[in-house]
Amino acid sequence: MIQKIEWKKLQNGSDIRGVALPGVEGQPVNLTPEAASFIGAAFGLWLSRRTGKDMEGIRVAIGRDSRLSGPTLLDAAAQGLQHMGVTVTDCGLCSTPAMFMTLVTEGFQFDGSIMVTASHLPFNRNGLKFFVPEGGLDHDDITALLDICEKGEFPIAVHSGKRETLDFLSVYANGLVDKIRRATGSELPLDGLRIVVDAGNGAGGFYAQKVLKPLGADTEGSQYLDPDGNFPNHIPNPEDATAMAAIREAVLQNHADLGIIFDTDVDRAAVVDNEGQEINRNRIIALLGAILLSEHPGTTIVTDSVTSSGLASFIQSLGGVHHRFKRGYKNVINEAIRLNGEGIDCQAAIETSGHGALKENYFLDDGAYLVSKILVQMAKLRREDRTIGQLIDCLDEPAEAAEVRFPILSKDFKSYGQKVLNDLLELVNQQPNWILAPDNREGVRVSFGKEDGDGWFLLRLSLHDPILPLNIESDQPGGVKIIAQHIHSFLSQYDGLDISPLTRLIQP
Please, are residues 365 and 356 in contact by the beta-carbon 8 Å criterion? Predict the structure, then answer.
């Protein structure tokens, strides 16, 4: 059975993802326990080659989020490691950032770690993320792991590896509490504040009990803290409108000073201020930028490609540098690391999705650390009778915004999508009123003046899927439709694109 698995189809950039549970039509299970066992064994072999250690001397920590298939896949991956002679420490329910911290926290310092998660994807999906002390594995590392699985040439261990258990989530939470106390100079910096958490039934419920309460916060009104892989209330996703509406309502109903929402595995986050303002997407980047630029004047903030023009102006107004880069959390993180390596101070890499990675925190995309950074600022501002929402009052936001996604019908979708982008670039160069963004590093981003929609569009090729996403923003009512009409006639010539979502957008 194992030889029938199409290993390369399990790769999703720098992660492994697949269908782990049956029941959804058209989605056959391909991330089986058997596959997870082989992948665990491959990681042990890969670590041995990387470190030069015998596998009996390697220690790997493994954890999971609240997904229904999590316990089974964790157990299978752990058994695969043990079959190779690796010592495995089972951390149980955990967060993705915490699993990285098992590698660098004094007294633990494992050789590698695995997190069983598929972030905010539907209940039937799951996946695995891998870490070494230098950070998360890259695309080529995942390819190497799957190559090992495909060949199936594993040495036989003399002795099976040991298996231990560890409540590392509490260790990680205590570390956040200590950081906040040191940064604020107070044992109870949140005393007198009501802060509500919405974990979406993912792994983030610990934050209310293990971080906020020890710091003095009143967490009454927090919701969906219990892990439940059915996700019965809403998708755990700070980009999702329903999820953001849920935490906003909790803030307003409970007269809270702050609302916090995490994704399933807590590597992403967003907040809601005391007035019910949703601080996600461009706003969360602006807030983090304001905090970091007060600490590191002139620093560079790396973002993904779909950030707004208003955000760029906001960062520049604070004396910072906005460096727009490609979508994908590993892409923005690696770009920030590259800039620092060239001597350019870059304190943060953050996507509009809520993936925020700070230089001071190993460039680890950590939703709980991001929120903790905001809480420190909140505690300091309270002494001046100010709120975090006031830090982004000057952020100019578009009057309208839209995203449409065009399925690519061609089998070779990457070549077809790239041809569309190349043709678009030629068209842009022929249009005097179409202004090509000089600093865009992904797809084709074009700006328009007030007569042509007063905004911009970005057409790009999805990193992994046969999709061309189109983002549009405008600073005038009705502008999105005008800009959409500009590009509609161009896209209509491609039979290999389904542009019906754009057609619907421009219809009366």
Answer: yes
Q: Are strands 321-324 and 346-350 parallel, antiparallel or unpaired?
A: unpaired
Q: How many other C-beta atoms lie within 10 A of the C-beta of residue 28?
A: 9
- What single DSSP character describes residue 9? G
- Cα-Cα-Cα-Cα torsion 112, 260, 472, 14, nearest 10 degrees, comes to 10
Q: Answer yes or no: are the C-beta atoms of 249 and 224 closer than 8 Å.
A: no
* Residues whose CB is less than 8 angstroms from the CB of residue 192 and which lie 6 or more positions away in sequence, other chains included: 216, 218
Catalytic residue among 14, 37, 69, 119: 119
How buried is 249 (Cβ within 10 angstroms: 0-12 exposed, 13-18 middle, 19+ buried)?
middle
Q: What is the 3-state secondary structure (H, E, C) of 359-373?
A: HHHCCEECHHHHHHH
Asked whether the beta carbons of 77 and 106 are under 8 A apart, the reply is no
Q: State which amino acid sits at residue 484.
A: A
Measured distance CA(242)–CA(246) in Å, rounded: 6
CA distance 204 to 227: 8
pLDDT in tens, the chain (508 residues): 444 899 999 999 899 999 999 989 889 999 999 999 999 999 999 999 999 999 999 999 999 999 999 999 999 999 999 999 999 999 999 999 999 999 999 999 999 999 999 998 899 999 999 999 999 999 999 999 999 999 998 998 889 999 999 999 999 999 999 999 999 999 999 999 999 999 999 999 999 999 999 999 999 999 999 999 999 999 999 999 999 999 999 999 999 999 999 999 999 999 999 999 999 999 999 999 999 999 999 999 999 999 999 999 999 999 999 999 999 899 999 999 999 999 999 999 999 999 999 999 999 999 999 999 999 999 999 999 999 999 999 999 999 999 999 999 998 999 999 999 999 999 999 999 999 998 878 999 999 999 999 999 999 999 778 999 999 999 999 999 999 999 999 999 999 999 999 999 998 7
Dihedral (C-alpha) 368, 374, 378, 379: value to the nearest 10 degrees?
Answer: 60
Contact criterion met (CB below 8 Å) for 223 and 196: yes
User: For residue 251, what is the enclosing H or E element?
Assistant: helix 241-253
CB atoms within 10 A of CB 492: 12
- Does the annotation mark 14 as catalytic? no
| Residue found by looking up tokens 């077809």 in the block | 416
Distance CA 41, CA 91 (A): 18
Q: What does the buried/exposed string (b/e) look like for 458-483 if buried means 16 or more CB atoms within 10 Å of the residue's CB? A: bbbbbeeebbbbbbbbbbeeebbbbb
